[in-house]
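User: What would this chain look like folded?
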Amino acid sequence: MKTRHKRLILVAAGLATLALAAWLILSAFQKNLVFFFTPSQVLKGEAPHGRAFRMGGLVEAGSLKRLPDGVTVNFIVTDTAQRIPVVYRGILPDLFKEGKGVVSQGKLGQDGVFSADEVLAKHDENYMPPDAAYALKKAKQANQKVADTLVTGGTQTKDVK
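Assistant: Here's the prediction, encoded as structure tokens.
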């Protein structure tokens, strides 16, 4: 065999190995890919059937029910347009409350009940670290001073008696 043929076989084997590795990586991503849907999208049939996905919205006020076993919880997730009942078996996060945001991961059953494997409580979107809040407050005060100066035309008036 000539050197050129050996080199060609080596390059072809390298490309085949690279293609196999890329295929394995992409198939692993595909299996672990989880999409997010709202209750309205789930009821329209946009969510995958027989596959796990995430559903998010608000926990409907008055819908939280704990079963006697102490571990199973039923609640309703709403996006203010549609409602989907959720059943979860496990310990809820500390931030989980009625009327607050929640993201549940699981599967939708044939009966229309979402069986959650994981429940994540969304934190308050208004939270801000103290340093950032202080910086914004100072910037707002500086902007107010500039606005006041522009309104008065930059002239200071003194009372003459």
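The two ends are 111 Å apart (CA to CA). If you want, I can go into more detail on any region.
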